[in-house]
Specification:
The chain is an all-alpha fold. The protein is 83% helix and 0% strand. The radius of gyration is 15 Å and the shape is elongated. The two termini are 18 Å apart.
Amino acid sequence: MLKYVIAIYLIIINITGFAVMGVDKKRARQQAWRIPEKSLFLVSIIGGSLGTFLGMRCFRHKTKHWYFVIFMPLILILHLALAFWLANYFIWHLF
């Protein structure tokens, strides 16, 4: 049951990450109120790293800011490494 809750959470947070990058890009073009960069990083850190990274690439958003270019892929790599480690840990220790 827990794995389904985690999967649903990751799907929702990554869709959210992709959407906030698109919304912020649209607002940037319209010179409207923007989503704070802290919020973009927060969505990435709490599990939406794939969505925010893909949103960054798809919308060509924040690609001129060195800290986004470096840290968004780094957060994604850390999340993938953690997922790989957890999968191996549970495979070897539960079966």
